[in-house]
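Obj: model holo form, ligand = nicotinamide-adenine-dinucleotide.
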Amino acid sequence: MTARSAAEGPAPSFVHEQGASRVVFGPGEVTRVGAEAARLGAERILLISDRRSRGVADAIADLVDGRVCGRVVETATHVPHQEAEDATRLARTREADLLVCVGGGSATGLAKAVALRTRTRILAVPTTYAGSEMTPIWGITRDGHKRTGRDPVVQPVTVVYDPELTYGLSPGFSAASGMNAAAHLVEASYAPRVSPVTAAISAQGLRLLAGALQKVTTAPRDPVARADALTGAWLAGWALGSALMGLHHKICHVLGGAYGLPHAAVHSAVLPYVAAYNRSAAPQPLRRVAEALGGDDAAGALWDLRRAIGAPAALEALGFTASDLDHAAALVVEERPVNPRPADVAGVRAVLRAALDGRRATEIP
Ligand code: NAD
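Output (holo structure tokens):
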């Protein structure tokens, strides 16, 4: 970071709060999950995995040596209420003293829903770039509405990041999930009263992600690129956990919860346009975003990155239509986004309209 000049505004004031997690990172480190669970004194582990991570979960079950008391082997996106109820009942009846989750944000999310009710600690082994493992944020969906909240009890106490577990992510999903991580870093950059630590992490995370995503989408088993992308995702989750998110996250929350659109792809489709919308209201933070991405303008640089890595680009390709614009904009505004530029129905509609076909736009009037 360079020193600020007086022209950049008043001296900063902030409150920085960061939940404590132990992070173990490296290729092959998944083999340490047994030792990490033992370090936490776990005797009865509920093992939660998504369908694609079942094989890894099987290996973890061997590592923890007879201490698995129950398993959940499938998870649905956005944590449906009934799934949370069933997993909680299992944790209670089996008297689990540790939840180990392996998989994407949906597996982490289910473990968090159980922790919210039972106060059981979580050891997370993430396999995508969603970043949920670093946050105290939970979400549960019921009747098309996703409720979210913050509670330190759901933040995993230990996170084991093994880049080798991400080699199987397709180029398309790597790109989409990487844009999900980028969204945390962009919104942290202009969050209200953001601390200098979070601002620095935001820029560093974006630099790492931008370079790594260009490589992993063409060479999915490149060990250095996968490690850098996962490091970027770690920093993104860290930023998400420490700063308030703005309009972008509210839009994605509504499009996922009320319209059932895929989480990571929606982040990718919307992000450049929220940066364009906020351009005049957060010029300095967005200049730093642009610099981190190697461009002159944040919205344009995000659009260019998205195209370079082949990430999802148009909301209409995800099933969102022009006839949804008014209702969706109203739902987003009801969520009262805290955003550098006030978000009214006309403004949110303009962002969604621009995201519909995914054309390049660096400013949204
Ligand atoms: P996901 O967990 O739903 O996974 C998407 C798909 O990828 C699934 O089919 C999964 O089985 C598969 N997959 C996972 N890891 C894989 C791997 N290594 N190789 C191949 N396939 C793999 O999607 P996601 O984008 O990771 O997470 C989205 C969910 O996380 C949403 O519900 C979102 O709201 C939540 N989330 C929460 C927070 C938070 O802080 N609470 C943060 C980010 C995301």
